[in-house]
């Protein structure tokens, strides 16, 4: 039990990073939408919902499935990149973002591509598998 609690306590920096990235992604996805929920503008509310749901999921993944932490972190970056592309190119990207399957597929594949790219770059920099 103490080991699991220690793992949770070690996730503070990751939780902060994920919380910020998730909030920004949610905010960017809905920044052009008018309306309010309670006293909060819709983009701010959605950003808080993203942060509130994604942060615990990322921490639980890191604690109980530590082999997936690199993918989880890469998905956070991919989600923010997708949200930024929706904010920059709304005419093209908004219809794609409104399709949940396409949205999730793009974000997960983006995360997988980031992980693969970082592994490839590490292999190139370390010279692992390089032919002389």
Describe the protein in words:
The chain is mostly helical and 132 residues long. It has one domain (2-126). Helix content is 79%, strand content 3%. It has helices at 2-9, 12-29, 42-64, 69-88, 90-97, 100-126; strands at residues 36-37, 40-41. Strands 1-2 form a two-stranded antiparallel ribbon. A hairpin with a 2-residue loop joins β1 (36-37) and β2 (40-41). α2 (12-29) runs antiparallel to α3 and α4 (69-88) crosses α5 (90-97). The N and C termini lie far apart (50 Å).
Concise account of the structure shown:
Helices cover about 80% and strands about 5% of the residues. It is mainly alpha-helical.
SSE topology:
Elements: H1 2-9, H2 12-29, E1 36-37, E2 40-41, H3 42-64, H4 69-88, H5 90-97, H6 100-126
Antiparallel strand pairs: 1-2
Mean pLDDT, all residues: 90
Instruction: Count the domains.
Output: 1
Largest sheet: 2 strands, antiparallel
Calculate Rg over CA atoms: 17 Å
Structural class: mainly alpha
What keyword list fits this structure?
132 residues, mainly alpha, single chain
């Amino acid at each position: 039990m103490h080991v699991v609690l220690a793992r949770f306590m070690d996730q503070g920096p990751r939780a902060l990073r994920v919380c910020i990235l998730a909030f920004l992604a949610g905010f960017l996805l809905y920044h052009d939408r008018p309306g309010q929920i309670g006293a909060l503008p819709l983009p701010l509310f959605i950003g808080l919902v993203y942060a509130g749901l994604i942060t615990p999921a990322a921490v639980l993944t890191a604690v109980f499935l530590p082999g997936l932490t690199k993918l989880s972190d890469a998905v956070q970056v991919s989600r923010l990149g997708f949200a930024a592309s929706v904010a920059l190119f709304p005419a093209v990207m908004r219809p794609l973002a409104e399709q949940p399957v396409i949205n999730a597929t793009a974000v997960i594949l983006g995360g997988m591509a980031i992980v693969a790219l970082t592994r490839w770059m590490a292999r190139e920099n370390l010279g692992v598998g390089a032919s002389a």
